[in-house]
Write a structure and sequence with these properties.
By secondary structure, the chain is of the alpha+beta class. 28% of the residues lie in helices and 33% in strands. It contains 8 helices and 10 strands. The protein has helices spanning 17-31, 43-50, 54-66, 94-100, 119-125, 163-168, 171-177, 196-202, and strands spanning 70-73, 77-80, 85-88, 105-116, 132-142, 145-154, 182-193, 209-219, 224-233, 237-240.
Length: 246
């Protein structure tokens, strides 16, 4: 399916024409006007239709390829890969947010084991160093694409967690079903480059930008019930915050 796309250019604007083209294609993907699998006109046709040079159009397409929104396939052309996952900063699980957004979440559990906590995690969770806790490592997928690498520490006995039920349901959903009433969380967001191991698991290149999220969640009694250290593919994922003047 080749997508027809309306692109309006402001040739008097100081914004480069390639960037105007790229932003309008990106916005069409975010709105869902261009669905995953949609093919764009080839560069020559698109350049002719917009009255632009082929190098300008090529630069716009390459910009979106580098962002992970488009992919070039030999014999097929340029296709939309996916829309970037946008997530509001709320006390919700990524699994539930993806499901609500129609992103077909899936999970691969890499490890689920008891382990003694080290000094940094012990201090965050308010336990002594060496306390046995549940350590969990998962890869979260959205619409078949690896999206995030999730590491979590939880006190023992909160809920019955297995590789099977964690593959089918979100962690927070399982905790709530076990009667854990999560009330508040402290969260820190940052960014860094992917390690070789992370790049391999997330299907990224080594050194690709990743968003980082550290979260400590407390129940309605003020007890720390979960610590998460997660990394997300920056080309696939963003966080949204609503700001209110006080």
């Amino acid at each position: 399916m080749t997508a027809e796309l309306a692109i309006d250019l402001d040739r008097s604007s100081p914004i480069p024409l390639y960037f105007q083209v790229a932003e309008q294609i990106s916005e069409a993907i975010r709105r869902g006007d261009l669905i995953p699998g949609s093919r764009l006109d080839n560069e020559i046709l698109l350049a002719d239709r917009l009255g632009l040079s082929r190098p300008t159009v090529r630069q716009a397409i390459q910009y979106l390829v580098d962002k992970g929104l488009l992919v070039r396939k030999r014999g097929v052309g340029t296709q939309v890969v996916h829309g970037q996952v946008k997530r509001s900063v709320e006390l919700t699980s990524l699994y539930d947010d993806l499901r609500r957004a129609g992103q077909e979440p899936a999970t691969r559990v890499l490890s689920l084991e008891r382990a003694p906590v080290q000094e940094d995690v012990a201090a965050i969770l308010g336990v002594t160093i060496g306390t046995e806790m549940l350590r969990l490592e998962r890869i979260r997928y959205a619409s078949g694409e690896p999206l995030a690498l999730l590491h979590n520490w939880l006190p023992l006995g909160l809920a019955t967690l297995t590789a099977e039920n964690l593959s089918e349901r979100g962690l927070y959903e399982l905790l709530r079903a076990a009667g854990v009433r999560m009330r508040v969380a402290n969260q820190r967001i940052g960014a860094r480059a992917a390690t070789a191991a992370e790049a391999r698991l997330l299907d990224e290149r080594r050194g690709a930008p990743l968003l980082t999220l550290l979260r400590t969640t407390y129940d309605d009694q003020g007890r720390a019930v979960e610590y998460g250290s997660h990394v997300y593919r920056a080309s696939h994922y963003s966080l949204e915050v609503t700001l209110i003047e006080r």
